[in-house]
Amino acid sequence: MTGTLKTAGFDGETLEIIAFRLHDQEFCVKTTTIREIRGWAPSTPIPHSPPEVIGVMNLRGTVIPIIDLAHKLGMKSTVANERSAIVVAEVHNMVIGLVVDRVSDILTVQGSQVQPVPEVTASFDKSFAEGIIANENGMICFLNLARMFKEREVEELAA
């Protein structure tokens, strides 16, 4: 093995990311996928919806699904409170709301700072993550919303 640091394939790029917390972990996504950040507001439950769908809300005349991102990532569901936020994102031309504990920061990072997700086990599915960003405050898991929400799945959320 050489002495060079293996990266996740963003070399030479400058990435604008939005960081947020779920429980005690930090995650981020590219700002280009984000439409807006809203304060927590209750949503309307939908019968027989997938377990990660909390419900729907009206966003300026458009009904959008609200997703419990922690549950989608295999974590304990988020219990929303006044510090929670809804990160409104566009994935596969569909607008969805992602419930997070709180938004931490908007950062600019160099692509070379994004390291690949290590192999944990053969059955470990790392497709949701673009990589890991190590900074002075800890580690940030860089999520890929397009892979997390398959195109067909997003269409079903909208139905």
Automatic annotation (TrEMBL):
Domain (CheW-like): residue spans on this chain: 14-154
Under the heading PROSITE patterns, the entry gives:
CHEW
Matching entries from PANTHER family are given as: CHEMOTAXIS PROTEIN CHEW (PTHR22617:SF23), CHEMOTAXIS SENSOR HISTIDINE KINASE-RELATED (PTHR22617)
The highest taxon in the source lineage is: Bacteria
**Stated name of the protein:** Chemotaxis protein CheW
Q: Which Gene Ontology BP terms does the record give?
A: chemotaxis; signal transduction
- What is a single cellular component term in the Gene Ontology annotation? cytosol
Which regions form coiled coils?
A: none
Q: What is the lineage of its organism?
A: Bacteria, Pseudomonadati, Pseudomonadota, Alphaproteobacteria, Hyphomicrobiales
Matching CDD domains? CheW
Q: Which SMART domains match?
A: CheW
- TM ranges are none
